[in-house]
Amino acid sequence: MFIQLFLSKTHYVLFFSGTLWPEVAKKKKKKNKSKKRKEPPQQTDPPSIPVIDLFPLGEFPEGEIQQYKDDNLWRMTSEEKRELERLQKPICNSVRQAAEVHRQVGLHDAYTTGNNRYQMQFTYLESYITIPVRKLISENGLQAGIAFPTGCSLNWVAAHWTPNTGDKTVLQYDDVMKLDFGTHIDGYIVDCAFTVAFNPMFDPLLEASREATNTGIKEAGIDVRLCDVGAAIQEVMESYEVEINGKVYQVKSIRNLNGHSIGQYQIHAGKSVPIVKGGEQIKMEEGEFYAIETFGSTGSNFSICRMLAA
């Protein structure tokens, strides 16, 4: 029996753009004219201006800030802990620069792909991401650039598939595709993905992955056990159902796919963040970076190559 299996994958790093621009007055010898506000640079469509030019002060926007939970609330009031965070500011700023590049390219690609990009070859889709990333991040060898090959995983392929040169695969209306790309500054990697589906029939599947990811982000934190994050993700993911061609499927977490810790120049740094209950009791530690990743399936809760995924 051939079983159609749809998977969705979502993992986010949320960053928001915004900065303050000083007023600049033009000096005149004879007349005293009122000050004129210097207009901030505007990103093009498609994006092509390096983000360093959009933030000339070199300070990049903070992302979404999650409050510590329960017994960790004291970290918000401890001056010693806040000073430690200030000492890590250069690292955080590098991550925020990489994240701002990812955000601008990802938002543009999600909008254009989601509206009018089916019937497009995968090789073009892949370049549609990598070319703007190289421009916006001011690619410079090991100092700044693309963190890993862009994933364009289609339907039953859950993750980590990249089209080869000459691939003639064309994106169709009923396809479900995971776009997964990474950016880095000085080896500090931002690893994010989102799922694209043109047919609204798949919206509940995408929502399941999105809400499960947001739950994982909220549950994560210093001294939190990885198994607890996985249990929370699974509870949300498997509360969803999706109707595909008249048949109702429960969305399931794929138990052999995980999130992971990230190190400098190291996309997988040794710790795995499960998306099901019963994982390891290892704790998240101070100073670590994580990619919270979720994979939802309408079929088996185990990923194998011959299944259909999205």
List its salient traits:
disordered C terminus; metal ion binding; four-stranded antiparallel sheet; 6 helices; alpha+beta; Pept_M24_MAP; three-stranded antiparallel sheet; Pept_M24; protease; 19% strand; hydrolase
Folded structure, characterized:
Its cofactor is Fe(2+); Co(2+); Mn(2+). Residues 138-294 form the Peptidase M24 domain. GO terms for molecular function: initiator methionyl aminopeptidase activity; metal ion binding; metalloexopeptidase activity. The chain is α+β, with helices and mostly antiparallel strands and 310 residues long. The protein has helices spanning 51-54, 79-87, 89-116, 122-136, 203-219, 226-237, and strands at residues 7-10, 23-24, 36-37, 144-146, 151-154, 176-185, 188-197, 241-244, 247-250, 252-253, 259-262, 272-273, 289-291, 294-297. The protein is globular, with a radius of gyration of 21 Å. The relative contact order is 0.17.
Short account of what is shown:
Helices cover 27% and strands 19% of the residues. It is of the alpha+beta class and 310 residues long.
